[in-house]
Write a structure and sequence with these properties.
The structure is a single chain. The protein is an alpha+beta fold and about 350 residues long. It folds into 2 domains: about 1-115 and about 185-295; about 315-345. About 65% of the residues lie in helices and about 10% in strands. The protein has helices at about 1-10, 10-25, 30-90, 95-110, 170-205, 255-265, 270-310, 310-345; strands at about 115-120, 125-130, 135-140, 145, 150, 160, 165, 210, 220, 230, 240-245. The strands form 4 sheets. The chain has a 4-stranded antiparallel β-sheet, with helices on one face. Strands 5-6-7 form a 3-stranded antiparallel β-sheet. Strands 8-11 form a two-stranded antiparallel sheet. Helix 2 runs antiparallel to helix 7 (about 270-310). The longest helix is centred in the first third of the chain and has 59 residues, at about 30-90. About 30% of the residues are buried.
């Protein structure tokens, strides 16, 4: 989102549009300056379109990734159900049971990357899993797994459900996608408000004045959102710089000044600057949060490995010790064999 706002150049386009209006006020009948205003208006509309397209791409990417993660969560849920069934048949203390318990924990860790989990472990090692919060929705019970689904609202935000019951992920990548899409919808609305404000302000000023030929001014912009904004005026002669009732070719720029004052009061550049500042602040805040959560996740993973995993350093030391013991035993057995052969030779 931050890149879409920064790289589109929409803020610069707003500033430059206001600048060419100021330049026109010094000679309101100059054809080249009039043409420059129309050209800059077209550039401004194009920059809004590019920003809106960038937002669309962000939203499409978030929804695509979330849908893929929903599919992965369903696959993991089905696999957990199969592991539960196999655990009920695995012998106590068997290597198969140990492998199944490791597989269960790995699946739970992967599932926990998508959503918050509530788990309940039975004595036989099987696990019941619920997804989300407020309230959690049952997802895996014994050998049965539910179905996680997602739905896209009109504003592009996502909602989730387990077996048709609404579910809030609470944490994980699905919650991240949901929060990001909600933020994106808010930013898109703010961008649309700025675009619509510029179009209305300019078009209202046009309607209040007359063009270079003395006819009533016609709209410069069409469209009500950042994605639909476009320039409909084809030439600079249509700019209504003079007030209503002025003669053709009038150098009276009072209507142009009224337009500039209206734009100054609207202050679209400051509005866009505020949007960009908010996004940048949130990006910085999320980076700090992510760093802290990475530390927590690393600590949790180490704790899990200490309880259910293998200490590779200890096992490596044990491997060397057992290897040396085996080699020593082999040498002792070889020495005993040699002594026995020697004794047999003496006896003959």
């Amino acid at each position: 989102m931050e890149s879409a706002l920064e790289q589109s150049g929409v803020f610069t386009a707003v500033v430059e549009f206001e600048a060419v209006l100021q330049q026109l006020s010094s000679d309101p009948v100059d054809p080249s300056r009039r043409a420059a205003v129309v050209a800059e208006a077209s550039t401004l509309a194009n920059k809004f379109n590019i920003t809106a397209s960038g937002f669309d791409a962000v939203g499409d990417g978030l929804r695509f990734d979330a849908e893929a993660e929903v599919n992965d969560a369903n696959i993991i849920g089905a696999e957990l159900a199969r592991v539960n069934l196999r655990l009920t048949r695995a012998g106590s203390g068997s290597s198969d049971r140990a492998a199944l318990l490791d597989q269960r924990d790995q699946l739970l860790e992967r599932l926990g990357g998508f959503s918050s989990l509530t788990t309940s472990f039975a004595a036989d090692g099987t696990v019941a899993v619920s997804l989300g919060s407020n309230p959690p929705r049952s997802f895996v019970q014994g050998g049965t797994a539910g179905t996680l689904t997602s739905a896209t609202a009109a504003d592009g935000t996502l909602s989730f459900a387990v077996d048709g019951q609404a579910m809030t992920p609470g944490s994980g990548s699905l919650e991240g996608a949901s929060l990001a899409l909600t933020e994106l919808a808010s930013l898109r609305q703010r961008l649309d408000t700025v675009a619509a404000g510029i179009a209305d302000t300019v078009n209202n000023a046009q309607a209040a004045g007359v063009a270079l030929d003395g006819t009533q001014g016609q709209p410069i912009f069409a469209g009500t959102t950042a994605g639909t904004l476009r320039v409909v005026m084809t030439g600079g002669a249509g700019l209504a710089t003079a007030p209503a009732g002025a003669a053709a070719g009038s150098r009276d720029d009072s209507n142009l000044n009224a337009l500039r004052q209206s734009l100054s009061a609207l202050d679209p550049a400051q509005q866009l600057n505020g949007v960009l500042f908010d996004v940048s602040s949130k990006v910085a805040g999320r980076a700090v949060t992510q760093s802290a959560l990475d530390t927590i996740a690393t600590s949790a993973r180490i704790s899990l490995e200490q309880q259910s995993g293998v200490d590779l350093d200890t096992e490596a030391a044990n491997l060397i010790r057992f290897q040396q013991a085996f080699q020593a035993s082999g040498r002792a057995m070889q020495a005993a064999s040699d002594i026995f052969d020697t004794l047999l030779g003496i006896g003959r």
